[in-house]
């Protein structure tokens, strides 16, 4: 039997916190741990936004919370990417690292104290397990740098992708096929969904 989505998300949070701990206790660990933590957080967040938050909004009635959590993801991703461009040894880095860790910790606490219990209450064990498999699958795609695809075949059509590309002002969209549109839209959205 697979782990349910709550166990998987919580395990991933602990792993992220382990990397935070490494970076704060040992500066020399930063060059290796930071890119890992940034990539992990991004893959975790994307998989959550696509595979877990829709269930949270629709099946557990926590739509506003899912939206709020998504905003926090974007903020944390932005901060993480900024850190990658900084000098590991500067004082500004120390401060920015602290702020990033605090922001992520705050988000993790909210998720574990409010969102995940709501999910646990509203969904049955089989559904929680199904969401866990979906989360793991999407996270794996994101870590491999692939555009995320839903398992249920609910992929966007070329027309839907084209509309998004137009909104995003992607040039050359009229000559792109579906895969190219998906890739460019994914890129323009900052690597999300
Ligand atoms: Fe999250």
Key traits:
193 residues, mainly alpha, Four Helix Bundle (Hemerythrin (Met), subunit A), 2 domains, 74% helix, 0% strand, binds fe (ii) ion
Q: Tell me the number of strands.
A: 0
Radius of gyration: 18 Å
Task: Indicate the mean pLDDT.
Answer: 91
**Uncertain ranges:** none
Ligands: fe (ii) ion
Distance between the termini: 28 Å
Order of helices and strands: HHHHHHHH
Q: How much helicity do the residues have?
A: over 70%
CATH class of the largest domain: Mainly Alpha
Please identify, by name, the CATH architecture of the largest domain.
Up-down Bundle
What is the CATH third-level topology name of the largest domain? Four Helix Bundle (Hemerythrin (Met), subunit A)
Count up the domains. 2
Q: Number of helix segments?
A: 8
What would you call the shape?
globular
Give an account of the 3D structure.
It is a single chain. With 193 residues, the chain is an all-alpha fold. It folds into two domains: 5-147, nmb1532 protein domain like (Four Helix Bundle (Hemerythrin (Met), subunit A)), CATH 1.20.120; 156-193, no CATH class. 74% of the residues lie in helices and 0% in strands. It is built from eight helices and no strands. Helix 2 packs antiparallel against helix 4. The radius of gyration is 18 Å and the shape is globular. The chain starts with a helix and ends in a 5-residue tail after the last helix. The model has no long low-confidence stretch (mean pLDDT 91).
Short description:
With about 190 residues, this protein is mainly alpha-helical.
């Amino acid at each position: 039997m697979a782990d349910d989505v709550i166990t998987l998300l919580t395990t991933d949070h602990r792993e992220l916190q382990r990397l935070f701990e490494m970076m704060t206790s040992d500066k020399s660990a930063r060059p290796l741990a930071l890119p890992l933590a940034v990539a992990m957080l991004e893959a975790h967040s994307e998989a959550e936004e696509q595979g877990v938050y829709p269930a949270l909004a629709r099946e557990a009635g926590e739509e506003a919370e899912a939206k709020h959590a998504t905003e926090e993801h974007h903020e944390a991703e932005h901060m993480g990417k900024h850190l990658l461009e900084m000098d590991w040894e500067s004082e500004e880095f120390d401060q920015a690292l602290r702020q990033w860790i605090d922001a992520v910790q705050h988000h993790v606490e909210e998720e574990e104290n409010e969102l995940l219990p709501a999910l646990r209450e509203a969904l049955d064990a089989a559904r929680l397990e199904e969401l866990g498999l979906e989360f793991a699958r999407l996270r794996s795609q994101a870590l491999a740098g692939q555009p995320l695809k839903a398992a249920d075949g609910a992929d966007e059509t070329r027309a839907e992708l084209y509309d998004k590309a137009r909104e995003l002002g992607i040039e050359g969209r009229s000559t792109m096929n579906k895969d190219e549109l998906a890739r460019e839209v994914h890129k323009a959205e900052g690597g999300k969904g």
